[in-house]
TrEMBL record:
NCBIfam families: FMN_nitrolo (TIGR03860). This is NtaA/DmoA family FMN-dependent monooxygenase. It comes from Streptomyces similanensis. Belongs to the NtaA/SnaA/DszA monooxygenase family. It comes from the Bacteria. Keywords: Flavoprotein, FMN, Monooxygenase, Oxidoreductase. Residues 25-395 form the Luciferase-like domain.
């Protein structure tokens, strides 16, 4: 008997806090005007996507005290945007990244519970920690927290937020049939939490929301991050979109669920994925090359190289050869606080590898960054992209993808118009929403049901 086809989960990431956006394209729009967010969200809902994902940018991206072009220069507050989008959409989930390093549980729980009410049960929280000192300067003395402290705070932060969400839990909560207001005894919203990170007690003033708790996302990739996700997240925003790396990550995280009394269907793996479409595969490949060169300007290439060299390389020509000096392997000078989570842990080995590649292919600094950096995940005709996405999901490389277009806000439209209908024809993607909440879209149980299943197991 053949294995039933998995249903694909699709979401849309509003870009900007990344290095994928092409600012120079005439079609590129504002990241401040609400019309851009509304267009993007309406396209995602028209295509029956699960949710929209909005990343968090707490400080302008910079190196050496200078702002550079990898990031949006200013963005409205995440909660404000998501609440506004709740009013112009009906079914689309609304996911926001809110960090646990610089916020407090009561404030964040109150905001997400409010969003869940305002949206009719469509809120989701991407729980992250913040590693860098230059962001930390906006919030706390000393900049960043070491990795082990960040995750200790994050675990207790999420547990405390759950206590707040659940403080209105129980059969004794009823709604007055005349006024619609909630009635409850003197225990309404009462909570007490005492722990190493938080010592708080009081009353949570937002009644139980439609989803009980927001859907919980997690985006960390470290050992601590994977365990954190397996213990309490509903979905992972993964960076592994290639077949081999994606399958290894998928298998590793799913195997961790059993010790927490959870089934494999209780945690979704959703990698970020970029795409370039063309009428033919050849046309799409040519377009992808053009997009990549637009994404990696000369200044961007130098800034990227500085992460590895750990030196100021502003005097180097991005169209010239790689530096002949070795990386500085001492204290982190470029990304303060990132020493604990370096993208390139062995800087000398990476420099040797890159010099060999550049010499073999006669690449400049910019050429090297273009060819070794993140490339478009799906490139081809609509038929090719639809077939490839389905193969990845059916092959347990992922449970779906969070799509990041390189043009804002209209970059999602071609995918919605040309790829989604093909997935629907294959019977692997919905033709309409069957439920009203984000948990419905993702096939996730209500927290009360999930807790009962865990106890029973």
């Amino acid at each position: 008997m053949s294995k039933p086809l998995k249903q694909i989960h699709l979401a849309a990431h509003f870009p900007g806090v990344n290095n994928t956006t092409v600012w120079s394209d005439p079609a590129a729009g504002s990241h401040i005007e609400f019309a851009s967010f509304a267009h993007f969200a309406r396209t995602a809902e028209r295509a029956k996507f699960d949710f929209l994902f909005l990343a968090e940018g707490l400080r302008l991206r910079e190196q050496g005290g200078q702002i550079y072009d990898l990031d949006v220069v200013g963005r409205p507050d995440t909660f404000t945007v998501l609440a506004a989008l709740a009013a112009v959409t009906d079914r689309l989930g609304l996911t926001g990244t809110i960090n646990s390093t610089f916020n407090e549980p009561y404030e964040v729980a109150r905001q997400f519970a409010s969003l869940d009410h305002l949206s009719g049960g469509r809120s989701a929280w991407n729980v992250v920690t913040s590693w860098d000192a230059f962001t930390g300067e906006n919030f706390r003395r000393g900049g960043f927290l070491p990795q082990e402290e960040r995750y200790a705070r994050a675990k207790e932060f999420l547990a405390t937020a759950h206590e707040l969400f659940d403080s209105w839990h129980g059969d004794e909560i009823v709604a007055d049939p005349v006024t619609g207001t909630f009635l409850r005894d003197a225990k309404a919203g009462a909570f007490v939490h005492q722990g190493p990170q938080f010592d708080i007690h009081g009353r949570f003033d937002v009644p139980r929301s439609p989803q009980g708790r927001p859907v919980i996302f997690q985006a960390g990739d470290s050992e601590e991050g994977r365990e954190f996700a397996a213990a309490g997240a509903d979905a992972i925003f993964s960076r592994y979109a290639s077949w081999d790396d994606g399958r290894a990550f998928y298998d590793d995280v799913k195997k961790r669920l059993a010790k927490y009394g959870r089934g494999k269907d209780q945690l979704l793996i959703l990698p970020a994925a970029t795409f370039v479409l063309g009428d033919t595969d050849a046309e799409a490949e040519e377009l992808a090359g053009q997009v990549r060169r637009q994404q990696v300007s000369g200044a961007t290439a130098i800034k990227h190289l500085e992460f590895v060299w750990n030196r100021d390389l502003s005097s180097y020509d991005p169209e010239g050869p790689l530096p002949d000096i070795d990386p500085d392997t001492g204290e982190d000078h470029i990304a303060r606080g990132r020493a604990q989570v370096r993208m390139y842990r062995d800087r000398l080995a990476t420099a040797r590898e890159w010099r060999e590649l550049a010499a073999a292919h006669h690449w400049s600094i910019r050429d090297l960054v273009i060819h070794t950096g993140n490339r478009q995940t799906f490139v081809g005709s609509p038929a090719t992209v639809a077939r490839t996405i389905n193969e990845f999901v059916q092959g347990d490389v992922s449970d779906g993808f969070i799509l990041v277009p390189h043009i804002t806000p209209g970059g999602l439209d071609p995918f919605a118009d040309k790829v989604v209908p093909l997935l629907q024809e294959q019977g692997v993607f919905r033709t309409d929403y069957e439920g009203t909440t984000l948990r419905d879209h993702l096939g996730l149980a209500h927290p009360d049901e999930a807790d009962q299943r865990r106890v029973a197991s």
